[in-house]
């Protein structure tokens, strides 16, 4: 009897996603389309406390909170209303037992003109660093979402060099998340500077892009509708994760998902399950892009779409 009990413990332990390198994130969801919109609600989603409670109940350990702190930044100051709203969401999530990745999102002018905008980037993080001093360890900072254009892996690293000492002065142990250029493409990670042991490295994964972005109005040309993943595409996805694992650093797939508009839940579930399992197999933490709005997991009344919960949470 005793022996049987121990075996069960071992089996259950092996089935749980592992926190690699002490990085406390395993299963995460982006509270997308809320605070990174021009104003909350502009993109059809207002974050509700009940969503955060449902996320905690449904088996996630973390939310990623995209916030466009460059919106409403005036006279060298972060918009105080946006900051107060961000505080509320973070507190609600921490109180619900979730970690929070605070992500500086949609700062597009930084990518277009890093020389001109870098002082503002540094200032935003100086203010956030001061404001969140002493907050629980479950809060993490992600320095920039999807660097692109002139903000390539090298220039992004140079900006991180400026912000690290400022943040580390007050947050010596807080996890900081960085990523490379080309919209946080996985292939930039090998060129990204290695930092301290409380740093995780993020990439975004939407491969094959014409599959995951069918019907996405913001992509030109708009990818045409197509069938489900092929066997060859499944093998290709698995290969990408095996390659990533060789980097031997704490990794976060900070965004992945399939746009919900044109693709059936069944086809989305297949892609999500294949991708999520490949990540977990190699100890890579993940964060699904979208909860209740674009790339949604649940319908407008909060009920999971068919097959998606299983794709993210089961075996
Ligand atoms: C962007 C979203 C977009 C998503 C998938 C995110 O990084 O901020 O606007 O929907 O990627 O394309």
Walk me through this protein's architecture:
The chain has 315 residues and is an alpha/beta fold. It has eleven helices and eight strands. α5 (114-131) runs parallel beside α6 and α9 (231-245) packs parallel to α10 (265-281). Helices cover 40% and strands 13% of the residues. Residues 105, 145-146, 255, 289, 294 line the site of beta-D-glucopyranose.
> Low-confidence parts, pLDDT < 50 over ≥5 residues?
1-18
Which radius of gyration do the C-alpha atoms yield? 19 Å
Percent helix: 40-55%
For the sheet with most strands, the description reads: 8 strands, parallel, barrel
| Count of discrete alpha- or pi-helical segments spanning 4 or more residues | 11
Number of E-state strands: 8
How are the strands of the biggest sheet laid out side by side? 1-2-3-4-5-6-7-8
Q: Please write the string of helix (H) and strand (E) elements.
A: HEHEHEHHEHEHEHHEHEH
The quaternary structure here is single chain
Structural class: alpha/beta
> Beta-sheet strand percentage?
5-15%
Anisotropy-based shape = globular
Ligands (ions, cofactors included): beta-D-glucopyranose
Round the mean pLDDT to the nearest integer and report it: 94
Terminal Cα separation, in Å? 26 Å
């Amino acid at each position: 009897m005793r022996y049987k009990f121990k075996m069960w413990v071992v089996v259950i332990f092996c089935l749980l996603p592992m926190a690699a390198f002490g990085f406390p994130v395993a299963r995460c969801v982006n509270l997308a389309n809320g605070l990174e919109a021009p104003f909350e609600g502009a993109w059809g989603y207002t974050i509700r406390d009940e969503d955060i409670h449902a996320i905690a109940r449904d088996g996630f350990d973390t939310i990623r909170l995209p916030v466009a702190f460059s919106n409403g930044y005036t006279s060298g100051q972060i918009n105080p209303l946006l900051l107060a709203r961000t505080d509320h969401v973070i507190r609600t999530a921490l109180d619900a037992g979730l970690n929070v990745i605070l992500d500086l999102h949609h700062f597009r002018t930084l990518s277009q003109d890093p020389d001109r905008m870098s002082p503002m980037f540094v200032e935003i993080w100086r203010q956030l660093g001061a404001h969140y001093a002493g907050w629980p360890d479950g809060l993490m900072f992600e320095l920039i979402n999807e660097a692109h254009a002139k903000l390539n892996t090298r220039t992004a690293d140079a900006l991180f060099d400026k912000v690290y000492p400022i943040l580390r002065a007050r947050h010596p142990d807080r996890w900081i998340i960085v990523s490379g250029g080309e919209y946080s493409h996985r292939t930039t990670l090998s060129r990204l500077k290695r930092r301290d042991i409380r740093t995780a490295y993020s990439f975004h994964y939407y491969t094959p892009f014409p599959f995951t972005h069918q019907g996405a109005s913001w992509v030109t040309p708009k990818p045409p509708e197509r069938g489900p993943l092929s066997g060859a595409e499944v093998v290709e996805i698995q290969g990408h994760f095996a390659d990533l694992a060789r980097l031997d650093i704490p990794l976060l797939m900070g965004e992945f998902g399939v746009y919900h508009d044109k693709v059936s839940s069944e086809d989305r579930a297949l892609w999500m399950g294949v991708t999520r399992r490949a990540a977990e197999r190699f100890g890579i933490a993940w964060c699904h892009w979208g909860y209740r709005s674009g790339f949604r997991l649940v319908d407008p009344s909060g009920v999971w779409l068919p097959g998606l919960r299983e794709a993210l949470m089961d075996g």
